[in-house]
Write a structure and sequence with these properties.
With about 290 residues, the protein is of the alpha/beta class. It has 9 helices and 10 strands. The strands form 3 sheets. A 5-stranded parallel sheet has the order 5-4-6-7-10.
Length: about 290
């Protein structure tokens, strides 16, 4: 109110993936709850890459939009890099631009203008629940640009010893059993079983998958990449699906939007106001 500016968030959704649609729906609700200006663009799955880039560029020229999020993954006929590259770094609310990622992983680099929301949410969970990371063995299951790659960098910056496992990893179970912290992000329903987890390990389940369930009105229920019911009996801490990482992703998205609004409008905090989101480099480079 003081500066007469409202943080504005634009989301572009292509197609009708259950997980993507769920995230966008909750994002819109959260933005409304905190009084953000929200714009949503829902495009057909067959939209061309050229048409999608045009929509992004139109949003980039809107002064009321401070952050643009193109919901990933995109259909296979669209090059994600091309689309994401069309988002100006000062409106890259998901922190996926080469500049933001580069600043995140560089030792002693500049602060990123925004950080990938889901990985940042995972780290925030570890911090808020005071789970020790430094010196611990962390296994990231999945190497996507959305979660696996950036969360591995964040964990490494917090001095964890990080192993990234993927479809070509041999002895996957052995790697998981050595992990003090597991970040599961492969998009395979209930893949991680209790015999793959060390007793007392911290398990953060990023996956969100639809599983047929005739007892539900929608005909399905949402589950993660971890067999929650079984793994919770031996883990030291575990996030549920839904209700775990999802809300944290949205919270970090709103923090990124707010921060970009400040940056784009050259607004700084005074000593009596809230602390800036990135008052220090988010993750130490030492």
């Amino acid at each position: 109110e003081k500066h007469k500016v409202t943080p504005g968030l634009a989301t572009v959704l292509v197609g009708n993936r259950t997980d993507s649609a769920t995230y966008v729906r909750f994002k819109k609700k959260a933005a409304a709850e905190v009084g953000f200006h929200s714009i949503d663009r829902h495009l057909d799955e067959k939209v061309s890459e050229e048409e999608l880039v045009k929509v992004v560029k139109e949003l980039a020229e809107d002064d009321e939009v401070h952050g643009i999020l193109v919901q990933l993954p995109l259909p296979k006929h669209i090059n994600e890099h091309t689309v994401l590259s069309s988002i100006p770094v000062n409106k890259d609310v998901d922190g996926f631009s080469a500049l933001n990622i580069g600043n995140l992983v560089m030792r002693g680099g500049e602060q990123p203008k925004a950080m990938p929301c889901t990985p940042w949410g995972c780290i925030e969970l570890l911090k808020r629940y005071k789970i020790e990371v430094a010196g611990k063995n962390a296994v990231v299951l999945g190497r996507s640009n959305i979660v696996g790659m950036p969360v591995a960098a964040m964990l490494q910056n917090l001095n964890a010893t990080v192993t990234v496992c993927h479809s070509k990893t041999k002895n996957l179970k052995g790697h998981l059993l050595r992990a003090d912290i597991i970040i599961a992000a492969i998009g395979r329903a209930e893949f991680v079983k209790s015999d793959m987890v060390k007793p007392g390990a911290t398990v953060i389940d990023v996956g969100i998958n639809s599983k047929p369930d005739a007892t539900r009105k929608r005909g399905y229920r949402l589950v993660g990449d971890v067999d929650y019911k079984a793994v919770k009996e031996i883990s030291g801490a575990i996030t549920p699906v839904p209700g775990g990482v999802g809300p944290m992703t949205i919270a970090m998205l709103l923090k990124n939007t707010f921060n970009l609004c400040l940056s784009n409008n050259k607004i700084s905090f005074d000593k009596d106001s809230q602390e800036p989101i990135f008052s220090e480099k988010p993750f130490p480079a030492s």
